Here is the input.
Amino acid sequence: MAATKIFPITATEYKAIAYIANPEKTDGGRLIHTYGCSDEPSQASLDFDEVRLMGTGQSTVLSQHFIQSFAPGEITPEKALEVGIELADKLLHGEYQYFLAVHTDTDHIHVHCIFNNTNQFSGRTFETLENRKSDPSAAKLLRFSDEICRMHHLSVIEDHRSTKGMSHYEWSMEQINLSWKAKLKHTIDQVVKVSEDFNDFLQKCADFGVLVDYNPNHKIDLKFMLAEQKERNPRAKMTRARTLGWNYETKQITERIEKMKFYADYTPRIKIIRTASEKFLQSKGLTNWADRQNMKEASKAMNELAKHGMTADEVHQAAQIAFVHRMELMDELKFINVQLKEIDEQIALITQLQKYKPIHDRLKTLTGKAKKKFLDDCRYELDEYQKAAKKLKKRYTDGVLPTLDLLERKKTALIQERSEKDMQFKAADEESKSLSKSAHTLEKFLENSQERSEEEQRRKKKKNGDLE
Here is the structure.
């Protein structure tokens, strides 16, 4: 699904264009498209200036900048460029110069488009002509984006009303399953995988862009925040580990690091359900000090344990193992998505090569003035052919390209595998949540029971002392 944003530029227009044109973000400049201006940033800004000089001159806004962000793995860079151009053309209907670029440097592909605020035909401003109260440009941009995404069979956000109160960035990240909390949890999971122990984990958090505040003397001993979140919002507060979930508290992170080392060899033991219940109910202090509400929650937890056929003593370890298994499946799904993205890119390049090959072959047969004229007339097509050929040569050094049919078959097989893995992941995710909740409930229940027992003993000692 695509999220959109639009905002005005009142200064440093050249720097803004230079930023979106960065070769490191646009695959060496391959993912850039311009209309009515140069594809060189400084010249593009001068081209905008020429049109503005002929305008009404009544606005402090130099240009407008819109962003269109897509869900991870949903679209290829080439497709995003196509969709972005369609959106720019639909919004600006050929009356405003624009500089458009697709960025691939993050896990979600996104389109940047900077366009002149002055209409190149009437000289009037974009705000005057297009940003009306009855139909503001932001709403129009979003509506057009949704229409184009549907045409290209891309997902769209059907209900935008639930985004009220969020910043655009928070909203867009939430809609493409990249909320701050989800992204933070995922990043912490990656740190856990490469850590030797908890101290190593704390040190490696910085390498993964995670700020961490650990104080074992405080009741709330562990807090996290993404460094990029702090950069975007200096007033943002750190998130308590407990808020992220039971699996992100100090004790659980420590144990998860250990579980990663022997996960592959783990085989859950099966116990008789009756034995599990008896063991739990016979635990010292539980039946004496449990109040009704705690007992009710504990009973729910025991019912969950009965489903898995394990004892109360086993649930803590099983919850950790289930969570690690969930992480493994998530990584497998990500790898499949990477493979699918790679195949989509190959299909796009080979299709592009085949599309322009007749023109390239035609050029070889010409000489002299005919060749020069053909070069001038077909410069774009020949450039596109060379770009595709160059990229494919890097992928296939032996010069042997796979057929489109073979790539499509591989893609179909991967999509089927992803569907099966997704079902396994959902089951593992449900099991992990269930076991984690049960382990957390029993852990708190035992702590409360122990506290009650100690309090009662203190009261008895005090009473006995008074009697003496």
In short: The mean pLDDT is 79. Strands lie at 2-9, 32-35, 63-70, 98-103, 110-116, 210-214, 222-226, 239-240.
